Amino acid sequence: MEEKEVAERVRAELSEARFAHTQGVVDATTELARRFGANVQAARLAAWVHDIAREWPRERLLQAALRVEMPSGFALIPALLHGPIAAGLANEWFGVSDAVADAIRYHTTGRVGMSVLEKVVCLADAIERGRDYPGVNDIRAAALTDLNLALAMSFDSTIQYLLLKREPIFPLTVMARNEFWELTREVRE
Amino acid sequence: MEEKEVAERVRAELSEARFAHTQGVVDATTELARRFGANVQAARLAAWVHDIAREWPRERLLQAALRVEMPSGFALIPALLHGPIAAGLANEWFGVSDAVADAIRYHTTGRVGMSVLEKVVCLADAIERGRDYPGVNDIRAAALTDLNLALAMSFDSTIQYLLLKREPIFPLTVMARNEFWELTREVRE
User: For residue B31, what are the domain limits?
Assistant: First the structure.
């Protein structure tokens, strides 16, 4: 399916604000994919679809969760379901590759051993032009030169937020964050 | 073995400062065990032994780590090894029960589904009279009435510190922290 058709299908599923965020993520992903050497077409496709189920009510998410590949632990935190569900839909509706599906599946949580494609989509979601939270400009600055550092900072920002809110922190995100700081340290030492 | 003999054996293994910390943990553990209904004798024994390997050089820790029950992931973070190693020594030298060994084994990390004995030793280690860090008095105040809340706060403080230092965060600690906030929320709702 053409990218344009995917975009139109996504637009039909989202509020105006969420679609504007998605456009921001597509643009940021494109820039990051060029900068760090991911397949631009694949990265844009993942970006278009990443939030397609983001506005579904909890009941619909829980039902759909039973029909898609759901990595361990995701089902315990409802806010994480929309990634794997969007990955399933991307496969079913648009026939995306496994690499694109993984970038969609793990865009919120990250994971250990992320591909460059997964990294750029995950980071773009955190720093697209519409995002505004403490520290986002520092992450944007890091993203100009160091993908791993920017992701380490981005995950730390997420963990900080969840600490503040006393919300559950996903162990896989912590493992990803540990890995990115370790990679960053190795480069610097 | 009598508690007094255990304490003397521990004193022989530790610097003066670390032994003073241990005495602080024994006193805090005693208070918490009485308050929240753990076996005081068992709790004091775990407190005496918890840091017995804390001052070993890394090489000795890594070697000893091969000979004791080492829960998944501990070996990746050297700072966590002294708990399981002390649990092994407590068993070998002093013949402690499994419940006491677990309180020693998980005193730094916590884990999901902690016993009251494990909780009081872990919390005592964080709030004994010698401890001084941002927020410790808030945790002490919580510990007067709510063991789970105090532990949730204590783990969050640890995670905050590790974020600040860009040090690895142990996933099991995050899972324990998530559980304590969930338990605390259930009580309040």
Answer: 3-188
The total number of structural domains that make up chain A: 1
Mutate to test the interface with A, among B175, B178, B183, B186 (most CBs of A within 10 A): B178
Ranges under pLDDT 50 in chain B: none
pLDDT at position B185 is 87
CATH assignment of the domain containing A38: 1.10.3210.10
- CA atoms of B3 and B9, how far apart (whole Å): 10
Q: What is the CA radius of gyration of chain A?
A: 16
Token pair listed for B154:
């204590």
**DSSP annotation of A128:** S
B174 with A171: Cβ contact below 8 A = yes
The confidence score (pLDDT) of residue B1 equals: 77
> Which ranges constitute the DSSP H helices of A39-146?
40-49, 58-65, 82-94, 98-105, 116-127, 136-142
Q: What is the pTM of this model?
A: 0.93
Task: Centre a 10 Å sphere on the Cβ of residue B23 and count the other Cβ atoms it contains.
Answer: 18
Residues 6+ apart with CB under 8 A from A103: A42, A43, A46, A50, A115, A117, A118, A120, A121, A122
- Please check whether residue A162 touches B, CB under 8 A: no
Q: Which residue of A has its CA nearest to B184?
A: A166
pLDDT in tens, B150-163: 999 999 999 999 99
Q: What is the ipTM of this complex?
A: 0.91
CA A23 – CA A88 distance, rounded (Å): 21
Region of B56 (left: φ > 0; alpha: ψ -120 to 50; beta: rest) is beta
Helix/strand/coil percentages in chain B, nearest 5: 70, 0, 30
Contacts of B6 (CB under 8 A, 6+ apart): B45, B48, B49, B94
